């Protein structure tokens, strides 16, 4: 369908006047058509699943591979002996990642779309395109007293995790973004960026201590290795992987897998049995920015190990919906001729995100509503519907 323009509207108006005797009826129909089309352009696809879920999940886990497109997955699969844990997912779809002001979305706009169900400008976090705050899945879950968790192998203040808790016009003020974690009650959180909490230059607040004062179990890389020690399921849990970005790659990769093993069980036992958990692997994106094919493949395989831990929980639990996708592809990554399952020759067209469709994989009760092609905002709508938010 052509978009409604002034010329199109005029032509439609003339046509209706010619075929419909009542001028009031014609005018009403024109206005109705114009309004309906304008609304559709503003709000996207409509998002409410067309079919009902036979069995609603009690728990939802959204896993986001930053920079993970279809080719990144393909390269990791072939290099990993032609198999990935990802293949256990029962339903596959694709989402459209563009932002409200650019065909190519950045992590902030894409993260906000999945967290809040709105298309927004590149750079905006938790805001609509007019700069107004929008409620996130984390905020809506907490309103229903549903426990929530956030895991990232970047910093808590990076665009993707921040999109689920913060509201800002830029991701540059990391200390400002950190303050939102004190305003929300995040039941389980693992990530880097401790200095934005404990060594703040802007206001000298110690958010690390404030979390402890609020009753959180808080620890960090300088005190003990992640995953060591026991949990008190009655207290919220926070662990800082690094002062800023985790630099020890082998430790960071291992910690992501450990977090994916611990978080679902912790959250299931933490409250009423329900939970929403967002997990980000941010490092695939880093490989795309540096055009490092081997890095992408290694990180993709590691992310798949983390996916394996989540799917293992979901298979045993039978009441958990798992969704796995990317926020955008990066680099225009391709597998060149001459590649084999043992040796992948990667090719890139840029060091920036691209506009490719992003695959969406789903497993568990409600997975069927993630089939098809839809807007990235629909991921929010489908999760909201599945959890009954």
What does this structure look like?
The protein folds into 2 domains: 6-39, no CATH class; 49-387, 3-Layer(aba) Sandwich (Alkaline Phosphatase, subunit A). Residues 1-47 have low confidence and may be disordered. It has 389 residues and is of the alpha/beta class. It starts with 5 loop residues before the first helix and ends with a helix. The protein is built from 13 helices and 12 strands.
Classify the helix fraction into a percent range: 25-40%
Number of separate domains: 2
Which radius of gyration do the C-alpha atoms yield? Answer: 22 Å
Q: What is the second-level CATH architecture of the largest domain?
A: 3-Layer(aba) Sandwich
Kindly state the number of beta strands. Answer: 12
What is the CATH H-level superfamily of the largest domain?
A: Alkaline Phosphatase, subunit A
The major β-sheet equals:
10 strands, mixed
Structural class: alpha/beta
Distance between termini?
33 Å
Spatially, the strands of the biggest sheet line up as: 5-6-4-3-7-1-8-11-2-12
Count of runs of 4 or more consecutive helical residues: 13
């Amino acid at each position: 369908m052509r978009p409604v323009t002034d010329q199109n509207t005029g032509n439609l108006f003339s046509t209706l006047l010619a075929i419909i005797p009542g001028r009031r009826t014609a005018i009403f129909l024109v206005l109705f058509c114009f309004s309906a089309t304008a609304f559709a352009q503003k709000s996207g696809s409509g998002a409410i699943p067309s079919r009902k879920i036979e069995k609603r999940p009690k728990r939802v886990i959204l896993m986001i591979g930053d920079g993970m497109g279809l080719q990144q997955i393909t390269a990791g699969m072939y290099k990993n002996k032609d198999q990935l844990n990802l293949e256990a997912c029962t339903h596959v779809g694709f989402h459209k990642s563009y932002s409200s002001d650019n065909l190519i979305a950045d992590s902030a706009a894409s993260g906000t779309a999945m967290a809040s169900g709105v298309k927004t400008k590149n750079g905006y976090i938790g805001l609509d395109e007019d700069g107004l705050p929008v409620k996130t899945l984390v905020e809506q879950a907490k309103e229903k007293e549903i426990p929530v968790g956030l895991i990232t192998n970047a910093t808590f203040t990076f665009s993707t995790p921040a999109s689920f808790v913060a509201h800002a016009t830029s991701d540059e003020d990391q200390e400002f973004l950190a303050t939102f974690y004190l305003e929300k009650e995040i039941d389980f959180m693992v990530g880097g960026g401790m200095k934005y909490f404990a060594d703040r230059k802007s206001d000298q607040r110690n958010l690390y201590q404030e979390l402890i004062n609020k009753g959180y179990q808080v620890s960090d890389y300088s005190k003990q290795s992640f995953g060591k020690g026991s949990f008190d399921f009655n207290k919220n849990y926070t662990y800082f992987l690094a002062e800023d970005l985790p630099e020890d790659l082998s430790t960071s990769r291992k910690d992501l897998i450990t977090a994916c093993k611990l978080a679902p069980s912790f959250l299931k036992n933490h409250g009423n049995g329900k939970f929403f958990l967002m997990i980000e692997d941010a490092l695939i994106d880093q490989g795309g920015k540096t055009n490092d094919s081997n890095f992408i493949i290694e990180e993709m395989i590691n992310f798949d190990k983390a996916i394996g831990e989540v799917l293992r929980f979901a298979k045993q639990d039978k009441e958990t919906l798992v969704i796995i996708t990317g926020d955008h592809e990066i680099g225009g990554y391709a597998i060149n001729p001459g590649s084999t399952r043992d040796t992948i020759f990667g090719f890139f067209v840029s060091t920036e995100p691209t506009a490719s469709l992003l695959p969406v994989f789903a497993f568990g009760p409600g997975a069927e509503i993630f089939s098809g092609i839809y807007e990235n905002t629909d991921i929010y709508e489908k999760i909201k519907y599945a959890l009954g938010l």
